[in-house]
């Protein structure tokens, strides 16, 4: 097994935990006594395979600690029901929430694991009626489930998509309310929200999240930051990422260090505005 090496060592995420939370986060563990910005999100926020994700890069630019509370494969449920995360977010000077995919959250059709939101647990009776003949015991992950339904049950899949989108908007509003601090919503992808019209390109990350859904949040979020990664950054591919040989395919599906630098640049002015407004109060 070989790794792309930086400084002769493989990437160590130094996983850590914080009081009151059942989740594991990227370390090192931070001091929460001093003022800080909290970042909530999924795999991109966590920075899988990326030595210095955008949280670290934003911290350099802000000169204010940025606590990375990203969780790999997380959806909104991982944070909206975790009292430890909500407490840390409530104590932060500002909160950044990555726009996470809509399929990794519980809804009227199916339930996901409360912490590992990509894990499919069970289908509701409503789901079983909509997709008659489907053996849901065959599915353990939401991605696998939705790919199957989209291919073999397209009409029911459209109804399911609408439910996921409604659930995402409601859960985002709930999370923002529970955080109780100004929220900066970050769109971090290789395309803009406007490129997702209806169900066109719905599968691209963040899955099923559209411009209309973001607009529905209205005043529930203080700022919306759209980071559409540039072609120049995308051209760098996996340059600077650290992964084992068997993880190469997974790394190809993620945004690299050059994209994370652009996310930090995009976030900086929005977070500065939120901080100034907060400190004036």
What key attributes describe this structure?
281 residues, alpha/beta, two-stranded antiparallel ribbon, 7 strands, disordered N terminus
What does this structure look like?
It is a single chain. By secondary structure, the chain is of the alpha/beta class. The relative contact order is 0.16. Residues 1-9 have low confidence and may be disordered. The protein is built from 11 helices and 7 strands. The longest helix is centred in the middle third of the chain and has 26 residues, at 154-179.
Concise synopsis of the structure shown:
The chain is an alpha/beta fold and 281 residues long. It is built from 11 helices and 7 strands. It has a 5-stranded parallel beta sheet, sandwiched between helices.
Helical coverage, percent range: 25-40%
Question: What percentage of amino acids are in beta strands?
Answer: 5-15%
Whole-number radius of gyration?
19 Å
- Residue windows where pLDDT falls under 50 for at least 5 positions: 1-9
- Structural class of the helices, strands and pairings? alpha/beta
Spatially, the strands of the biggest sheet line up as: 2-1-3-6-7
The arrangement of helices and strands along the chain is: EHHEHHEEEHHHEHEHHH
Number of extended strands: 7
Q: Biggest β-sheet: count, sense, barrel?
A: 5 strands, parallel
Give the CA-based shape.
globular
Mean pLDDT: 93
Question: What separation lies between the terminal Cα atoms?
Answer: 54 Å
Quickly count the helices.
Answer: 11
């Amino acid at each position: 097994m070989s790794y792309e090496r930086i400084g002769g060592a493989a990437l160590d995420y130094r996983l850590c935990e914080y009081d009151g939370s059942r989740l594991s986060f990227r370390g090192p563990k931070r001091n929460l006594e001093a003022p800080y910005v909290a970042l909530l999100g999924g795999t991109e926020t966590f920075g899988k395979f990326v030595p210095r994700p955008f949280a670290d890069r934003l911290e350099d630019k802000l000169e204010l600690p940025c606590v990375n509370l990203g969780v790999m494969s997380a959806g909104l449920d991982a944070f909206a029901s975790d009292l430890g995360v909500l407490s840390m977010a409530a104590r932060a000077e500002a909160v950044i929430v990555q726009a996470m995919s809509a399929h990794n959250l519980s809804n009227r059709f199916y339930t996901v694991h409360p912490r590992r939101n990509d894990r499919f647990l069970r289908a509701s009776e409503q789901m079983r009626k909509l997709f008659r003949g489907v053996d849901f015991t065959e599915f353990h992950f939401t991605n696998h489930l939705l790919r199957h339904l989209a291919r073999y049950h397209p009409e029911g899949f459209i109804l399911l998509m609408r439910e996921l989108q409604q659930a995402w908007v409601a859960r985002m509003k709930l999370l923002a309310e529970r955080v109780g601090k100004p929220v900066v919503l970050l769109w971090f992808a290789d395309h803009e929200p406007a490129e997702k019209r209806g169900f066109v390109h719905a599968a691209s990350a963040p899955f099923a999240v559209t411009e209309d859904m973001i607009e529905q949040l209205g005043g529930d979020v203080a700022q919306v930051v759209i980071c559409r990664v540039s072609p120049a950054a995308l051209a760098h591919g996996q340059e600077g990422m650290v992964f084992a040989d068997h993880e190469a395919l997974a790394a190809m599906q993620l945004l690299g260090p050059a994209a994370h630098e652009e996310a930090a640049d995009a976030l900086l002015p929005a977070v500065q505005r939120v901080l100034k407004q907060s400190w004036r109060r």
